[in-house]
Automatic annotation (TrEMBL):
Residues 1-160 form the Uracil-DNA glycosylase-like domain. Keywords: DNA damage, DNA repair, Hydrolase. It comes from Streptomyces termitum. This is Mismatch-specific DNA-glycosylase. InterPro entries: MUG/TDG, Uracil-DNA_glycosylase-like, Uracil-DNA_glycosylase-like_sf. PANTHER family: G/T AND G/U MISMATCH-SPECIFIC DNA GLYCOSYLASE, G_T MISMATCH-SPECIFIC THYMINE DNA GLYCOSYLASE. Residues 166-177 have a biased composition (Polar residues). The keyword Transferase does not apply. Residues 158-177 are annotated as: Disordered. It comes from the Bacteria.
Length: 177
């Protein structure tokens, strides 16, 4: 784990219905979070949602802006986002990750009152934590491919000073003598 705590706290919008049933983040089969996390170099292999606790070994954490489960994020009210942003700020001040990565720029804009925010690093900090907005990995977000999302997530990994995770079976992994 990152020295002194989390390197990156990923923050989804809210639990989908599948996540609410299973208790695992980004559990819906069409969600691209887990493949993108691997392709971007955060994990040495693609984790399954039920392996989310393994993220801690890589200095990563996961939470949501809003706790209420819905079928779609557009079912949430502006008030829920704003309150979620307030609660998330408290959580970040307590946990002190190096970076907070909000997965969904629209959620970030609403929760933090930043209507012109774009994907990437934000000017806002929470205490010493830098903030980054990432594309939403939902299958409903057709503007981003798995590959273009992985490129953006890799930019975040590099900003967090995390090396690319490799496995023994990875051809890019350095060979041991």
């Amino acid at each position: 784990m990152a020295e002194g705590g989390l390197a990156v706290l990923f923050c989804g919008i809210n639990p989908g219905l599948m996540t609410a049933v299973t208790g695992h983040h980004f559990a819906r089969p069409g969600n691209r979070f887990w493949p993108v996390l691997h392709l971007s170099g955060f994990t040495p292999r693609q984790l399954r949602p039920d392996e989310q606790d393994e993220l801690l070994a890589y200095g990563l954490g996961i939470t949501n802006v809003v706790a209420r489960p819905t079928a779609r994020a557009d079912e949430l009210s502006r008030e829920e986002y704003v309150e979620g942003g307030r609660l998330l700020t408290e959580k970040v001040l307590r946990l002190k990750p190096r970076l907070l990565a909000v997965v969904g720029v629209t959620a970030y804009r609403t929760a933090f009152g930043e209507p012109k925010a774009v994907i990437g690093p934000q000017e806002r900090t929470i205490g010493t934590t830098r903030v980054w907005a990432l594309p939403n990995p939902s299958g409903l977000n057709a503007h981003w491919t798995t590959e273009t999302m992985a490129e953006e997530y890799a930019r975040l990994r590099e900003a967090a000073d995390l090396p690319r995770a490799t496995s023994e079976s990875d051809p890019e992994s350095p060979t041991q003598p």
